[in-house]
Amino acid sequence: MSETPLGAYGAAITTDVVSHLANLARIALTPDEIVKLTGELGAIVDAVAKVSEVATPDVPPTSHPIPLVNVFRPDIPGVTLTTAEALAGAPEHDGSRFKVSAILGEEQ
């Protein structure tokens, strides 16, 4: 397989890189699939490089073209349970907290 990088921006996506990534991901690929993916991944890297060229310091990064507005109601504190009320139905507690079994081999 070839070590020739693909892409107009010198992207280092080679067939060896694709083979290595497929091996790490435990994906079995045929040589034809590796060649095809090399070209496709090279095109993706080129597209990202093109966007990076356009980005300038005076343009703020954005995740949405339209500003998002919080649609949730305001958080207004209300009547809540006391500690005793919350623990009343618990199978086990220490007076201020629920007791639960240790997990993941943790010691108490």
TrEMBL record:
Heterotrimer of A, B and C subunits. The keyword Transferase applies. GO terms for molecular function: asparaginyl-tRNA synthase (glutamine-hydrolyzing) activity; ATP binding; glutaminyl-tRNA synthase (glutamine-hydrolyzing) activity; transferase activity. This is Aspartyl/glutamyl-tRNA(Asn/Gln) amidotransferase subunit C. The keyword Ligase applies. Allows the formation of correctly charged Asn-tRNA(Asn) or Gln-tRNA(Gln) through the transamidation of misacylated Asp-tRNA(Asn) or Glu-tRNA(Gln) in organisms which lack either or both of asparaginyl-tRNA or glutaminyl-tRNA synthetases. The reaction takes place in the presence of glutamine and ATP through an activated phospho-Asp-tRNA(Asn) or phospho-Glu-tRNA(Gln). InterPro entries: Asp/Glu-ADT_sf_sub_c (IPR036113), GatC (IPR003837). GO terms for biological process: regulation of translational fidelity; translation.
